[in-house]
Amino acid sequence: MICSGLLLLATTACYYDVEEELYPTIDCTTEDMSFAADILPIIQNNCYACHDAASNFGGIDLEGHQKLKVLIENNSLLGVIKHQAGFSPMPKNKAKLLDCEIEKIEAWIAQGALDN
What is the mean pLDDT of the chain? Predict the structure, then answer.
């Protein structure tokens, strides 16, 4: 009886979570963005399922720097990934890209959208 009471007390005891452990800070480095190392993996993981050369949904093929550059120049890339009014939100029927991924793409564009 006493053992079961102690066991019940031990399993229902309060504890305090540490906010830093529950919600760790994500370091989002946006300096010296590289197309090959930083941007291409984001595009491949989030966009190629629908917008590679084989799928080409909506007539949009994002394979290769030059094709992506066209969407940068007509200001649609940031509009769609930031879910801005007047743009079809992408990825379609999915959550918006992570803030850090969007920040990296914005920084890469601000740094000249180089094919590096």
Answer: 88
